[in-house]
């Protein structure tokens, strides 16, 4: 998450949707930056008063949690945005991200799976930490509470739109923390592709995704 008082925006950071690249551009508009902890400066200098606990908002806090921390009035005054990704592609990227980071809390577990299908089966049946991407940007009733949701597949175009909306200099996104792998379709069997289709049906229908 990145919160800018000067340009009045909140970047809500979904997993594996170019968040590190976007952060590299936007962090310069944040009044105070420290990895994984934000906004101590606002407690002293901002024109808005925020509760002290707000500086402990996790880097991947969802829209509801951020709104609860800053308050509905403040939340409504800022341009709020984030990105989503094709669920089939998203899971392949998450899979390799976990595997290459030995300190990741799921690395040991995921590295024991013999196949990608095993990972997908575990993810949709047992992994309680991940939910639909739409839910990440919604309130408890399922209504979207952000102003713009870009697509990873249209990253450059959608980020240019965001730059226009928040009034910052247009600069290209750097490539940071990219997970390299072959086309996501190559990783799936009919079985695992169907599991994702069912598990992320809401995202697929709402954002207009398909396997191909």
Features:
212 residues, alpha/beta, 4-stranded mixed beta sheet, two-stranded antiparallel sheet, 11 helices, 6 strands
Count helical runs.
11
Q: What's the story with the biggest beta sheet?
A: 4 strands, mixed
SSE string, helix = H, strand = E? EEHEEHHHEHHHHEHHH
The oligomeric state of the chains shown is single chain
Mean pLDDT: 86
Q: State the strand order across the main sheet.
A: 1-2-5-6
Helicity range of the residues?
40-55%
Count of strand segments:
6
- Approximate strand percentage: 5-15%
Whole-Å distance between the termini? 31 Å
Radius of gyration: 18 Å
Class by alpha and beta content: alpha/beta
Which consecutive residue ranges, at least 5 long each, have pLDDT under 50? Answer: 35-39, 41-49
Query: How would you describe the shape?
Result: globular
Compute the number of structural domains: 1
Would you write up a description of this structure?
The protein has one domain (2-207). It has eleven helices and six strands. The chain has helices at 19-26, 42-45, 63-70, 72-77, 87-100, 107-111, 116-125, 133-136, 155-166, 190-199, 201-207; strands at 2-4, 9-11, 33-34, 37-38, 79-84, 148-151. 29% of the residues are buried.
């Amino acid at each position: 998450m990145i919160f800018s008082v000067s340009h009045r925006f909140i970047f809500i950071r979904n997993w594996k949707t170019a968040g590190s690249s976007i952060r590299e551009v936007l962090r310069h508009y944040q009044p105070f930056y420290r990895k994984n902890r934000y906004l101590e400066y606002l407690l002293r200098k901002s024109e808005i008063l925020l509760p002290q606990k707000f500086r402990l908002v996790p880097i991947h806090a969802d829209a509801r949690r951020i709104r609860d921390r800053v308050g509905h009035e403040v939340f409504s005054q800022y341009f709020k945005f984030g990105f989503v990704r094709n669920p089939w592609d998203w899971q392949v990227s998450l899979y390799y991200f976990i595997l290459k980071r030995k300190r990741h809390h799921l690395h040991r577990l995921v590295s024991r799976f013999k196949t990608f299908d095993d990972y997908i089966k575990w993810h949709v049946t047992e992994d309680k930490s991940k939910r639909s991407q739409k839910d990440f940007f919604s309130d408890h009733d399922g209504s979207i509470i952000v102003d713009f949701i870009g697509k990873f597949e249209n990253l450059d175009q959608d980020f240019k739109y965001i730059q226009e909306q928040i009034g910052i200099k247009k600069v290209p996104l750097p490539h940071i923390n990219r997970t390299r792998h072959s086309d996501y379709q190559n990783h799936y069997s009919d079985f695992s592709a169907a599991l994702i289709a069912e598990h992320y049906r809401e995202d697929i229908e709402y954002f207009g995704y398909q396997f191909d």
